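P.,

For your records, the input lines for the assembly:
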Amino acid sequence: MFAGLGVSSFLAWKSIRRGNKGTLALTIMIIALIFVNLVFLPSIISGVVVTFDAQSIDFDVGNLVIEPREGSRYIDGVDGLQKKLEQIPGITGTSPRIAAGVTYFYRGRNAASTLYGINPEDERSVTRIADHMIAGEFLSNGDTDAIIIGTILAGTEGVAEGGLPSLEGVGVGDSVDVAYPNGATRTYRVKGIFETQSFGVDTAAFVTTREMSQVLGLDDQASAILVKTAVNGREEEYKTEILSYGVQEDVLTFREKSGGFVEQAIQSFNIINAISTLVSLIIAIVVVFIVIFINTVNRRRQIGILKAIGIDQQIIINSYVLQVLFITAIGALVGIVLNAGVTAYLTAYPLVFPGGPVYPEVEASAILRSIASLFGVSVVAGYIPAWRIAREDILTAIRG
Amino acid sequence: MIVAENLTRVYTMGKVEVRALAGVSLEVAKGEFVGIMGASGSGKSTLLHILGLLDRPTSGSVTIDGTDVLALSDRQRTLFRLNRLGYVFQDYALIGELTALENVYLTSLVRGASKEEYIERSADILRRVGLGDRMDHRQSELSGGEQQRVAIARALVNNPSILLADEPCANLDSQTSRSILDLFARLNEELDQTIVMVSHEDWHKEYFCRIVTLRDGMIGDMVECQKEPHPG
Ligand SMILES: Nc1ncnc2c1ncn2[C@@H]1O[C@H](COP(=O)(O)OP(=O)(O)OP(=O)(O)O)[C@@H](O)[C@H]1O
Ligand SMILES: [Mg+2]
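Structure tokens returned:
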């Protein structure tokens, strides 16, 4: 058995070393490209997920959101709850927000969207909106007549944002009227404009909690409390932890909060990916099959001779399978290098998606899966033609 | 020792039946040098293929060194060829990707010999057939006679019980043919090597111990040992 493998690898190696270099290089290249194709799309999909997640966490909802119990509009006793939450190890920030659907008016134009009331210092401890001001400044705790506006809502002079709420050209220093749902109307001076590249955030605006509580007549109440954790990706554990501290309100992870939108997108992407993977693997099967088929047909005579001088057909078949393994291994290696090149390029010049720039996220599991499927596919595609020729009648084979 | 009884081999091509062998019985004793002769199409190669376990007869029996080789499975026949037989093809049949030395030691590799042992043996045999300085050449770098001598060395490397050669000199000039036949004669005499060789050249007869002449798939003539003490 092992002597047989030795002979198989001897024959395989001589064949690779002394066979046609051009065909060998071409086959390796095709395998490499198939490998890149197998790894590339999943890496973009992972990148999209990472970008969506980062956007949600950094600008929209933090890692976790605490919401009022079923049937209540507001969380009561926000101060106390905030203190309680901040005792939990690993929670690095909390930001209570009041939300209201309002209408903005500016120079005869109006737009309906969400207005949030925030404590600027608390908000800085959770989201990174303050770092993404493209004009003016972020809110300060004492502000009462100031508003900051998302770049889509602020808009551009003369450009209708295709159905999105837009005031078409609000700038820093302008005055905007806001009509609250309770009928109250206030005029605010625009203190800053931010751009986060998340639609939900860039179409909204912020004033201070102090101002909004006063308008809506709230006291120590909030529509939601955003929670920031020290590390991303462990939201489920923190959720359990928070609930174990006796928090009575609803606790949602950012994924749950995004309401299946990302899940749906991922599902659609995965279908596309499955199709692309299938096509790539079929191409791999066909290519390897053709290469080994031509190789074995060209060597029918040689295979016949080997059998005639007493070499078991399994040894002959194995020598072709070993050649395929070698070609696939080198092909995968070249593929890894090519893929690293593509990844480096797309990291320097990322693809821009609605959620922000997407960087390819090459996961080790995707690489391993691709290598494994490539090997599986090529062994089968190499074995079949080798087996077909090797079991041919000796004299038929030798006559060529 | 080969005992073949009443061998027939019928090729069916559509509705036409070709009787390549029509009942051949033959015994070859240990140490004999048998020549099989006859006109083209008389069934010489067909007979040698059957004796070399490369083909199965339509009917009849073949026993080699007491083994009923027709009862063996394909895998056992492969092993039998590996361990007991050496076959020299008319057109050399070397593996082009291997050097002369590698061609010769390939079957020893399969038999699991140690590296030192098979390199030593193969080099030794190549020297004996006069190719001591051609061991690292590949097929494309060897002349016809040299290729045939590599093929002979390959057939001999495992000390086969029987050496079968199908027109080993067909593609060679008479000078080279003579050197190959001298080699066979020497092996036969010095090592008592059993040899069955197909030929259609009359002048080869002087080398053979016994001559079997086939005619239309049957033995037409059998000449018992008539070899001169020192041929050539
Ligand atoms: N595979 C085959 N299919 C059909 N007929 C065959 C086949 N092989 C051989 N024959 C026929 O069998 C007969 C004997 O062929 P064989 O090759 O044994 O002749 P031979 O004596 O070796 O001739 P040569 O001296 O030309 O080599 C011929 O008539 C040939 O046409
Ligand atoms: Mg013939």
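Two observations worth noting. Chain A touches chain B at residues 3-4, 6-7, 10, 14-15, 18-19, 301-302, 305-313, 315, 394-395, 398 (CB under 8 Å). The mean pLDDT of chain A is 90.

Regards
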